[in-house]
TrEMBL record:
InterPro entries: 6-blade_b-propeller_TolB-like, FlgD/Vpr_Ig-like, TRIM-NHL_E3_ligases. Residues 32-101 form the FlgD/Vpr Ig-like domain. GO terms for biological process: proteasome-mediated ubiquitin-dependent protein catabolic process; protein polyubiquitination. One of its GO terms (molecular function) is ubiquitin protein ligase activity. Residues 1-21 form the signal peptide. Keywords: Cell projection, Cilium, Flagellum, Signal. This is Flagellar basal body rod modification protein. It comes from candidate division TA06 bacterium ADurb.Bin131.
Length: 432
């Protein structure tokens, strides 16, 4: 009996050791000459199915490239780095840090608003979009009220729009989506245009696009919009606007008024009502409502046209051992390091995927029905955005019926989470 007890004890110790064993990442060398043509190769030992993120940063902690970000069951594998950044450019000589993170989780930021939440006091009717500017100020479009609200990073109303923290919308139809640029200008889609507002006075200063008339295909005149919904910006003064009802989206020079800024119009694909950009040439759009918002598609801006790179509408979760389809994707939030958070409304779910340059990899999924934000519970999530520093995820939940078959309302709130990991390690390497 004693021998059996000892054997059980030893087995349990072995089990605990395996479960708690950590991911180990080892470089084949610690320094390389940039003129040698050599590369780094990292060997990863992984004892359990887990999400693993391996990314490179320079001496100033600036993101350089993602080498690996996915949930994997592989126990031993190798990852190369060819000394190039995410744009395919050779990095300069210097010291670099490789960060290895596992156990992605979202932790409620209780210092924000009222214990991590804004809206539980009934301030919102039906919030639809959330955006963050380069200073970390947060903007919420309450579609039901026709109001754009502005908050500071801590959730306190930012009373700097003509002494208020809001802009009241035009007559119906209200804005369908919003964006905020590097200068603080606020953009809102309405009718057949994108209206542009001064971020200090709250006054409309011009509009982008216009009614296409009979030229829906931009065959004679560029710049027409057909009930634009989602809008996004990149760093090259471009504005993207999707028109799901007409099955296209378009690019504009946002410095120009009316139809003068029209650049190109997409053909094919199913661009929908939500999306995000990488700030450069990539656009990530959820698929349209007539596809049941099934997954997302990556598009590449080719300056005078746009092309589809690849998409994702299902994934395998190695932890849960399930094969799942993506449905009712409403929120798309780029994390500044080629990871993307997706918000599913029904069933309730927050999904993290990563863009590996050739396709999408599944990282992790969270969330369940309910009203406890600390437990990642939602009734009807609608949109999300990641802060410019990549540290926080904001999730919007609206107050409308959950679906056509479920008349229960959502909670009409905004929730702020810190993007966290249970384990983080660093390796130092250098290029000379």
């Amino acid at each position: 009996m004693l021998r059996k007890s000892m054997l059980f004890f030893v087995c349990m110790l072995f089990y605990v050791f395996i479960v708690n064993a950590q991911v180990v990442c080892t470089p084949d060398k610690t320094s390389i000459s940039s003129k040698s043509g050599d590369i780094f190769v990292f060997t990863v030992n992984n004892p359990n199915p887990v999400d693993i993120s391996i990314k490179v940063y320079d001496a100033n902690n600036k993101y350089i490239r993602t080498l690996h970000e996915k949930c994997t069951t592989e126990t031993l594998f190798k990852i190369p780095w060819n000394l190039k950044d995410t744009d395919g450019k050779q990095v300069p000589a210097g010291k670099y840090t490789v960060k290895i993170r596992t156990g992605l989780n979202l932790v409620l930021d209780t210092s924000f608003g009222n214990n991590g939440v804004i809206g539980e006091n009934g301030i919102f009717i039906s919030p639809k979009n959330v955006r963050v500017d380069k200073k970390g100020n947060v903007y919420v479009l309450d579609y039901g009220a026709g109001i754009i609200y502005k908050f500071n990073q801590d959730g306190i109303p930012a009373d700097d729009i003509a002494g208020k923290n809001k802009i009241t919308g035009p007559a119906s139809p209200y804005w369908a989506n919003i964006a905020v640029d590097e200068d603080g200008k606020i953009y809102g889609t309405s009718g057949h245009s994108v209206l542009v507002y001064d971020g200090k006075s709250g006054q409309q200063i011009y509009h982008i696009g216009g009614f296409f008339g009979r030229d829906v295909g931009w065959e004679q005149t560029k710049g027409g919009l057909g009930w634009p919904n989602w809008i996004g910006l990149n760093s090259d003064y471009r504005l993207y606007a999707s028109c799901p009802g007409y099955s296209y989206f378009a690019a504009f020079d946002r410095r120009k008024q009316g139809m003068e800024g029209g650049l190109w119009r997409s053909k094919g694909g199913t661009p929908g009502e939500s999306g995000d950009t990488d700030g450069k040439k990539a656009i990530y759009l959820a698929n349209a409502y007539y596809t049941n918002r099934a997954g997302i598609t990556k598009w590449l801006d080719k300056d005078t046209s746009v092309e589809i790179a690849y998409g994702i509408n299902s994934f395998t979760d190695p932890i849960k051992k399930t094969n799942e389809k993506m449905t009712d994707v409403w929120g798309v939030a780029f994390d500044r390091e080629y990871g993307i958070f997706l918000i599913e409304r029904t069933p309730v779910k927050v999904i993290k995927i990563s863009d590996n340059g050739f396709g999408f990899d599944f990282v992790k999924q969270f969330g369940s029905p309910g009203n406890d934000a600390a437990k990642l519970e939602f009734m009807a999530p609608k949109d999300a955005v990641v802060s410019p520093d990549g540290k926080y995820l904001y999730v919007i939940e609206d107050g409308e019926p959950i679906s056509s078959t479920n008349s229960s309302p959502g909670l009409a709130r905004m929730v702020k989470y810190k993007i966290n990991y249970t384990e983080e390690k660093e390796l130092s390497i250098s290029i000379y």
